[in-house]
Amino acid sequence: MRNAILRELQAEYDQQQMRNDQENQRRLAEVTGKCPEIAQLMDERQNMIFAGLRGILDGRVQGSDLPQRMDVMNTRISQLLKQNGYAENYLDPVYRCPRCKDTGYVGEPVKDMCECLRGAFYARLYQQVGLGEKARQTFESFDLNVFPDKKVEGQPFTQRQLMEIIREQCQAWAEQYPKAQTSDMLLMGPSGLGKTFLMHAMAKCLLDRGFNVLMMSAYRFLDVARKAYFSGQMTELDSIMEADVLLLDDLGSEPLMENITIVQLFNLINERQTAGKGTVISTNLSESDLKNRYTERIASRLTDRRQCMQVVFMGEDIRRV
Ligand SMILES: [Zn+2]
């Protein structure tokens, strides 16, 4: 996926450079059409540069006054541009990014990605893995202060204390994958307790570590699975199976389609566990709800502590606090 995005961006940068050249030529034609003296001066400047260079190469010219003569000529061209109603730098090469001159790379001799290309690359990567704007939801920006610092009913800890521990568990998993304690994670608890935010943070962390990550709602996954089942076209389903880490949000919110949903979900979890790939699932359902809805066979996959770390969110819906 990363290579495909880079190829796509490279093609766009090449196109941008072509558009820049066209714009430069258009401006030159426009200006010299309006003020032929500028064209004449530019020709002279060009000849002067060549003559100067030739002189230096022949060893005839020592301590050339070329720079001073160039200055005079440049000043004259700028004046003429202004007199004709143009900005002084109207004939300077145009670039969208002055740092890399729209090549996407900076540095000599070792080339490094320019900020503009890096930014575009990650924006597109986050978009393609289903993060998009949510890429701003990171462990660093996860604010514990939004959680009430009062005891969770029937528990010896406050909601904020609990969230601090959960954040650490999620972060440790994302930072250690594929060497994390378990291959899978199940984030359980009602809506509005920060499950999705932490999933986004995990996805971002894993992406930045170079893993092939895919984030989607369980609803969307089962939709893809159902279409693949009926059409026999497996491409999209394969890419879901192949992601290093798959993050499935909100399992339980999708409509149950007879057996298909259950079979596909089982296959997904089973194949990924067998292949040693990580899956992170969030759900509002409890363990017994999972059993009732998806059968014992699936629930046992998700509740086996050796394979899947369970994290239980508790407390008040922070959207209402
Ligand atoms: Zn740039």
Structure notes:
With 321 residues, this protein is α/β, with parallel strands linked by helices. The protein folds into 2 domains: 2-116, no CATH class; 131-312, P-loop containing nucleotide triphosphate hydrolases (Rossmann fold, 3-Layer(aba) Sandwich), CATH 3.40.50. The chain has 10 helices and 7 strands. The protein has a 5-stranded parallel beta sheet with strand order 4-5-6-3-7, sandwiched between helices. Helix 2 (36-58) runs antiparallel to helix 3 (66-83), helix 7 packs across helix 9 (258-274) and helix 9 (258-274) runs parallel beside helix 10. It binds zinc ion (ZN).
The mean pLDDT is 89
Low-confidence runs of at least 5 consecutive residues: none
Distance between the termini: 40 Å
- Output the helix-strand order: HHHEEHHEHEHHEHEHE
Strand line-up of the largest beta sheet: 4-5-6-3-7
How large is the count of helical segments?
10
Q: Per CATH, which architecture of the largest domain?
A: 3-Layer(aba) Sandwich
CATH top level label of the largest domain: Alpha Beta
How much strand content do the residues show? 5-15%
* Bound small-molecule species: zinc ion
Count the beta strands. Answer: 7
Helix content: 40-55%
User: What is the CATH topology of the largest domain?
Assistant: Rossmann fold
Keywords:
two-stranded antiparallel sheet; binds zinc ion; five-stranded parallel β-sheet; 321 residues; 2 domains; alpha/beta; 7 strands; Rossmann fold
